[in-house]
Amino acid sequence: MNIAGIKKLTYTVNTAILLMVIGLMGFFVFCRATFLVYFSIPTLLVYIIGYVLISRELLYPYVVMVYCWITIYMGICTVCLGYDYGFHLYGMSMIPITFYSDYLGYKINSRKVNPFLFSGFIVLCYLVCTMSPFIWGPIYQADKNIARAFWILNSLLVFGFLIFYTWIMIKTIIGSEETLKNIALIDNLTGLHNRHYIMKYLEEAEDLKKDAYVSMIDIDSFKKINDVYGHNAGDYVLKTLAGIMEENCKDFSVSRWGGEEFLILMTSESGKALSDEFIKERMESLRKTVESSKFVYEDKEIKVTVTIGVAERGQWQTVERWVDAADDKLYQGKNSGKNKVVM
Q1: CA–CA separation, 248 and 253 (whole Å)
Q2: Kind of pairing, strands 261-267 and 253-258?
Q3: Are the CB atoms for 54 and 7 separated by under 8 Å?
Q4: Which residues, at least 6 apart from 145, have a Cβ–Cβ distance to it below 8 Å?
Q5: Which secondary structure element, helix H or strand E, spans residue 78, and what is its range?
Q6: Is 186 within 8 Å of 194 (Cβ atoms)?
Q7: What would the pLDDT profile of 226-243 be if each residue is shown by its tens digit?
Q8: Nearest-angstrom CA–CA distance, 281 and 275
Q9: Given this model, what pLDDT does residue 134 score?
Q10: Are 212 and 268 in contact (CB under 8 A)?
Q11: Of 63, 71, 158, whose CA–CA distance to 101 is shortest?
């Protein structure tokens, strides 16, 4: 979640709490709890100031201010009305939220709250404020039906906050995991799966004993392209070639092996029986498509060809030897003129 998403979420939560304080202020007027009515005025100001802090991206001061004030507000309401109203429950919901805020601070590289310090403060306030009405009784008395209704309302609000923040936390974690997965398994330049992914896939696919081929593909004279046209042009060639291979080999697994090399895994999963003739035809078609394609970078046309080495799974007992066999075929093609398919 980025800073814009954090601000939007914080605006929403701040508005919800502000509306809740206004509603409680009306209830305190109804109960003639004079002190709580007056105490609601600075509470409203806290959340109005909160909008200013959020707009200026001062999220750390906002979090500290709000967490401290909610804890104090919870404590005072509990002392004044007793725990039959359920205001003390907010203390329990605050603790996981403090840890969530610590995580968000890390995500956006912002100053982080100390969740253990805040949790200790919340626990201390909770114990003091719940012991007070237990020993001396609440300051204000109200109808038991009203107390019961408030207990239900506050319980629902507390559970609502916990469910909401837990949902946000899980979404954030899943998003982070997906990002890490993409970094680990996807080549950043071409968007293809990388070497780590394809090797893991090959090692896990024990059924690839028959009707499976790998093609090792290398861009001919790629160093010369970088030297003559620049490395940005080389990146353009790699990305464009990746697109051509994906378009022409939709039924196969295309990956970037490293540098200017690509690897294509071809299996019979597509429903078509594979043969040397079929694979040779497909790779020749790919080679010709690359050769006839126009690679134009900054108004300069770059001639691009590829050499392809192909090996069948069959006799090779390990994945490493299978891939090495395709690599050997590739270099046979390189050493015998380039721009060809060798099986």
Answers
A1: 11
A2: antiparallel
A3: yes
A4: none
A5: helix 59-81
A6: yes
A7: 999 999 999 999 999 999
A8: 10
A9: 83
A10: yes
A11: 63
pTM of the entire structure?
A: 0.59
SS3 of 210, please? coil
Question: Residue 129: beta bridge partners?
Answer: none
- The distance in angstroms from the start CA to the end CA of the chain is 49
DSSP assignment of 241-300: HHHHHHHH-TTSEEEEEETTEEEEEEEGGGSPPP-HHHHHHHHHHHHHHHHHS-EEETTE
Q: Is the pLDDT of residue 107 over 70?
A: no
Handedness of CA 229, 231, 236, 237 (dihedral sign): positive
How many angstroms separate the CA atoms of 149 and 281, rounded? Answer: 76
Task: Answer for the pair 309, 280: CB distance below 8 angstroms, yes or no.
Answer: no
| pLDDT at residue number 90 | 84
Rounded Cα distance, 314 and 217, in Å: 20
Active site residue 260: yes
What is the Cα–Cα distance from 325 to 343, expressed in whole angstroms?
Answer: 10
Please tell me the predicted confidence (pLDDT) of residue 63: 83
DSSP 317: S
Q: Are strands 300-302 and 306-312 parallel, antiparallel or unpaired?
A: unpaired
Which of these is catalytic: 57, 204, 260, 269?
Answer: 260
Specify whether the CB–CB gap between 242 and 250 falls below 8 A.
no
Q: Which sign, positive or negative, has the C-alpha torsion 222, 226, 228, 229?
A: positive
Using an 8 Å Cβ cutoff, are 138 and 88 in contact? Answer: no
| pLDDT tens digits along 288-313 | 999 999 999 999 999 999 999 999 88
- The alpha carbon dihedral of 323, 309, 333, 242 has a sign of negative
Per DSSP, which regions of the chain are E strands? 212-219, 253-258, 261-267, 295-297, 300-302, 306-312, 341-342
In degrees and rounded to multiples of 5, residue 253 shows phi and psi of -100, 115
Q: Cα 190 vs. chain centroid, distance in angstroms?
A: 20
